[in-house]
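Figure 6 in text form: structure in, sequence out.
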């Protein structure tokens, strides 16, 4: 069953309850429904739910209110909850990565620049090594082009102004 079908099934089940209190009561009695919500939430948002009934009830509404069904494809890269990867090569704070901002591009950057960090991921695609190699080749090809643009954009150096006796006297006083 696809994620979208599972959500539709959850939507039908949750639709039988007039309010959140009744849904919470059903979740407390129906462990199968509770486990399905926890599983869907983990799949969609990449976060683990606790067993707290209020959290599970809130998760039902988060799942059902997800705007774009196309966004529901599971994340291919996943870190443990609370994990944060820093850019250990360039110390670029914009490259810090957690599950909140994880993307293929950012994950490949970290895997390419810090080969040991694959141990930090709890989910990687099966072909992640090939993707990293393709990423490395692509970025190596882009670097010379970026350097050419940077060098062309830099203005020529201005000749330094000659220091006159008056300007020297002013700075010394």
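Output sequence:
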């Amino acid at each position: 069953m696809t994620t979208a079908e599972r959500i539709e099934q959850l939507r039908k089940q949750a639709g039988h309850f007039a309010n959140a209190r009744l849904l919470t009561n059903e979740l407390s009695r129906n462990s199968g429904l509770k486990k399905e919500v926890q599983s869907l939430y983990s799949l969609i948002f990449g976060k683990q739910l606790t067993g707290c009934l209020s959290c599970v009830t809130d998760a039902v509404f988060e799942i059902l209110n997800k705007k774009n069904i196309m966004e529901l494809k599971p994340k291919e890269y996943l870190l443990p909850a609370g994990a944060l990867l820093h850019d250990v090569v360039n110390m670029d704070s914009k490259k810090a990565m957690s599950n909140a901002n994880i993307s293929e591009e950012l994950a490949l950057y970290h895997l390419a620049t810090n080969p040991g960090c694959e141990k930090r991921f709890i989910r990687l695609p099966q072909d992640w090594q090939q993707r990293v190699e393709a990423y490395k080749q692509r970025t190596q090809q882009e670097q010379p082009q970026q350097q050419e643009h940077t060098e062309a954009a830099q203005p020529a150096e201005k000749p330094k102004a000659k220091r006159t006796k008056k300007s020297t006297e002013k700075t010394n006083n």
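Caption detail: DSSP finds seven helices and no strands in the chain.
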